[in-house]
Amino acid sequence: MEENKKTAVIIGAGPAGLTAAYELLVKTGVRPVVLEADEMVGGLARTILYKGNRMDLGGHRFFSKSKVVTDWWCRMMPVQGSRSRDDILLGLDDKELSPGGPDPETEDRVLLKRHRVSRIFFSRKFFDYPISLSKATFSNMGFIRTVKAGFGYLCSMLFKRREQSLEDFYINRFGKPLYKMFFEGYTRKVWGLHPSNLGADWGGQRVKGLSVWAVVKDMVGKKFGRTGSGRQETSLIQEFIYPKYGPGQLWETVAEEVKARGGEIRMLSEVVGLRMQAGRVIGVEYKDATGRIHTQECDYVLSSMPIKELVAAIQDEGKPDEAVRIASELPYRDFITVGLCVRKLKILNETAIKTWQNRVPDTWIYIQERDVKIGRLQIFNNWSPYLVNDYENTLWLGLEYFCSEGDALWGMGKDAFVRMAVDELARIGIIEREDVLDACHVRVKKAYPAYYGSYYKLDKVKDYLNGWENLFCLGRNGQHRYNNMDHSMLTAMKAVEAIATGSKDKSAIWAVNADGEYLERRRP
Question: What is the tens place of the pLDDT at every residue in 467-522?
């Protein structure tokens, strides 16, 4: 009963924040008050609606090595066991699909089973991602490149580099020629820095066990029928689940559950201050849509706001100068997506996968071409046919650009940016300009915590934050760690466990995705 009187302020209504709110209500009885600066829930996993088309910012495959997370998703929204619109259009029989479960044609809250296809577009040709040792790969690379790649890989096996940078990480796993072809240029697009200037930590958390050897083992395993996802590298998965109307639909569902159970979500509420007393947070100040400042008293604070902003908001006269400086200099990478509605693509499906009107089956395509700025192309028709207003007659694309707030790309006006994006896709032969029907433009700040600069002194900031007994840091920006959605959710679950048990030890929260083995081998 005493616990029911307690309040937790949760900063941010993204995957970490909403997971924390739900878990608090289910497992502790602590009342969550969620403060969200945006007008939508979901954070980086929200879904943008534009003229009947839905856009997934960044692309969110629902796949996890954690059974706890997978079961949590499926409790919120059941998995499809019947036909979806693309199956009907292709004339596939119900017997070809899994029996039972909700029918997405008649029910909305459904997780669709999707086939994963991602490829690299390089030298105006398609390559499998991750790189496969297939006849098509060798044919597209050509004899000389193939021989160089083979010798380069052998050298990488015999002479290992000391992994001081992301460049070292990739060369150790793929060899220098393959690194030069498929990793160097794309990594520079994403981060704005050469891989030699980025920490190997990023590879350990995002690429994990992926290498040429991992690809070989995966191929052999499939040949002999061993496809269990429990041991499969995340980058090699073949199937995933996905909400019918995009990832934002799941988080909108969770938000409704939180409110139905007595939690509170306050939108357009920007946190501007944390009041501290005797080693604890006693209140959170936030600004509403009118600019008025409010204070919410609290017993706990669970923060997914960027560490840079969190440290600045803490009202503590004894705040260490070094921690303040390190936090203020933490690097981020920002993100712009152009949503493009087109009649058709110039590229056709040359895979064995059956598709409507012979469209390419890719969920996204990594654009490795060095003469364009676009980094990745999403084809939303292939994530879910229900994301597209006119699935039969149009394709709904997401053109992804990586930038930094204040640079030339970030400062470019919407119309000029859209013109550039259309010109780039036309230049590399993916569309014709005259097939473009409509476009929208979305900018996202601090989408990617970066691993360089003051990041390598983050432990000093972490020690300072952990010193506040009732303050818990969650999620991607809350920990300045390039977490996937499931990692962010696990940080929230670990924080709620600490609150439920009264533990002051926060090491388990920070340990999520802290090394390449956390979700690969350990089962929560």
Answer: 999 999 999 999 999 889 999 999 999 999 999 999 999 999 999 987 543 333 33
pLDDT digits (tens, 9 = 90+) for 404-446: 999 999 999 999 999 999 999 999 999 999 999 999 999 999 9
* pTM of the predicted protein model: 0.88
Segments of 18-69 assigned E as strands: 31-35, 47-50, 53-56
Which of the 8 DSSP states describes residue 385?
G
The four Cα atoms 318, 319, 323, 326 give a dihedral, to 10 degrees, of -130
**Distance separating alpha carbons of residues 469 and 298, to the nearest angstrom:** 13
DSSP 116-144: --EEEEETTEEEESSPP--HHHHHHH-HH
**Pairing of the two strands 471-473 and 300-303:** parallel
Longest dimension (CA), the chain: 73
Regarding beta strands 264-266 and 31-35, do their DSSP bridges make them parallel or antiparallel, or are they unpaired?
parallel
Q: Which two tokens stand for residue 205?
A: 């958390």
Q: Which residue has the tokens 């979806």?
A: 84
Q: Tell me how far apart the alpha carbons of residues 206 and 201 are, in angstroms, rounded to a whole number.
A: 9
- Measured N-to-C along each axis, helices 15-27 and 247-260 cross at an angle, to the nearest 10 degrees, of 30
Cis upstream peptide for 32 (omega within 30°): no
Residue pair 287/328 in contact by the 8 Å Cβ criterion: no
The predicted-structure confidence for 245-304, as pLDDT tens digits, reads as follows 999 999 999 999 999 999 999 999 999 999 999 999 999 999 999 999 999 999 999 999
Distance CA 96, CA 209 (A): 33
Which domains are delineated in the chain? 3-44+250-330+452-511 (3.50.50.60), 61-116+239-245 (no CATH), 125-224 (1.10.3110), 332-449 (3.90.660.20)
What are the angstrom distances between the C-alpha of 112 and each of 66, 101, 227, 500, 502?
19, 10, 20, 34, 38
**Tell me, what's the pLDDT at 137?**
73
Distance CA 204, CA 15 (A): 22
CA distance 270 to 313: 11
Cα(65)–Cα(491) distance, integer angstroms: 15
Mean of the pLDDT values across residues 151-166?
A: 87
